[in-house]
Amino acid sequence: MPTARHSWIDVVRGTAVILVILVHAMQRTELFTGHEFTRLETLTIIVTPLRLPAMFLLSGLFVTRSLAKGPAVYARGKLRRIAWPYLLWSVLLIAFFSAVRRATDIGFGWEVFWRIFYDPIEHLWFLAYLLLYFGLAMLVRWIPAPYLLLAAIALSAVPVEGQWLRFWANATFFFAGVVLSGYRDRLVRGFWPSLAMLLGALALSAGHALHLLQLPEAPWNLPIVLLFILGAAGVVNPVARSRWLAPARYVGVESIVFYIVHWPVVSFVAQTCAENQADPWVALAAALAAGLLVPWGLAALVRRWKPAEVLFIWPMRR
Length: 318
Known about the structure:
- The chain is 68% helix and 0% strand.
- With 318 residues, it is mainly α.
- It has one domain.
- The radius of gyration is 20 Å and the shape is globular.
């Protein structure tokens, strides 16, 4: 693992991805079994700042360093590592669910192929949005990042239907990360102030989940997400390289593999368990375990067998 990596970022990103997998396993199990995991849903709402907003913000932290390599290198890297897996796995996902539909009459088929280019399929919307954000950051790189953040907030307030609000709301978190990218080495503060910020963010989120208070929706909850990220940086950094955080750190390093692969896996396992009338909690446990272990094995394969990289990175000609 490169020594230049900020391990606390890997740990926080890995934790966010694990929580995304948990949420998707729960949702797919609820869909196929009809059982509602009420208490677990409350927990997932509490840790909302750990999930997608944090993932977008952490992605923005690397923009300044990436742009410093030059527009050509920057664009090539994003096309190889984001655009390629998005296109490839969109096709693979359609093929997978097309086969599932023939067997179970549930799912979708090749009629949704053209959605790849204007309406991302299932969970792959995250990669599509991320690619567009990186592209915007390159095209308007001469504009100071704080202005880009303000523009994203303003555009999210424009009352346009469809995916407009979600796109610009998440862009707010990404460009907040771009603003912070120039100060990435100074985000880590003392442990106790950081712990206070982290607990404060979680307390506010818990109060919202328990209906004790009403928090604003994205992007207006950006201060709470910033409070959480800054708190997590100081709390996690001292122990980020510890052995007991190695699983979360590994998921963070291989986040693209875990994020892409888990969705069809948890969907298939949850549906199979439901068809065999398994207990809902057993189905959830099986879906969650498969959603973690299958990407884990695939990430290990990619590391050990170079040709497997083509599943997630367009090979560079030497």
